[in-house]
């Protein structure tokens, strides 16, 4: 919520305001398989730090003004906390 992720993404505890963006509520189930050789935690961290490195196959266009994941200038501590949150259940 604090970083704006919940506006676009379905999260473990929140519903998005916009439609069409990749759901993250079950990130633990897909993150390890997105990129061969990339762990779930590394994939999620990369998606936040450098979204353009690997566009999600779960995205086909959303209802918001932006058609790509924004660069949110997260600190490494924030990324670590978000990855832990998304991978916990
Ligand atoms: C303006 C809407 C928007 C916001 C806000 C946003 N994202 Fe995204 N996100 C996207 C789009 C679009 C994609 C798909 C394209 C891509 O993979 O870069 C995506 C992809 C992702 C993925 C990869 C999902 C997959 O299916 O592989 C992760 C993880 C992610 N976002 C996390 C976050 C986090 C964490 C935040 C908050 C710090 C955030 N996003 C904020 C739009 C958004």
Which SSEs are present, and which pair or pack?
Blueprint: H1 5-8, H2 27-30, H3 40-49, H4 76-87
Helix pairs in contact: 3-4
The structure holds heme C.
| Broad shape | globular
Strand content: under 5%
Global Rg:
12 Å
Strand-pairing-aware structural class: mainly alpha
- Bound chemical compounds: heme C
Q: Helix proportion of residues, in percent?
A: 25-40%
Number of domains: 1
Discrete helix count: 4
Mean pLDDT: 93
Poorly predicted parts: none
What's the total count of β strands?
Answer: 0
Main sheet?
A: none
Measured distance between first and last alpha carbons: 18 Å
SSE topology string: HHHH
Could you walk me through the main structural features you see in this protein, from its secondary elements to its overall organization?
- With 89 residues, the chain is an all-alpha fold.
- It has one domain (5-60, 72-87).
- Helices cover 34% and strands 0% of the residues.
- The protein has 4 helices and no strands.
- The chain has helices spanning 5-8, 27-30, 40-49, 76-87.
- Helix 3 crosses helix 4 (76-87).
- The longest helix has 12 residues, at 76-87.
- The radius of gyration is 12 Å and the shape is globular.
- The two termini are 18 Å apart.
- The model has no long low-confidence stretch (mean pLDDT 93).
- The site of heme C (HEC) has 27 residues, from helix 1 and helix 3.
């Amino acid at each position: 919520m604090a970083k704006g992720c919940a506006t676009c993404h379905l999260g473990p505890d929140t519903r998005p305001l916009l439609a069409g963006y990749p759901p993250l509520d079950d990130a633990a189930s897909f993150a390890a398989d997105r990129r061969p050789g990339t762990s779930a935690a590394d994939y999620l961290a990369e998606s936040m730090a450098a979204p353009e490195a690997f566009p999600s196959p779960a995205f086909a266009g959303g209802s918001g003004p932006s058609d790509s994941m924004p660069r949110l200038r997260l600190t490494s501590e924030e990324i670590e906390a978000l990855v832990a949150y998304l991978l916990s259940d």
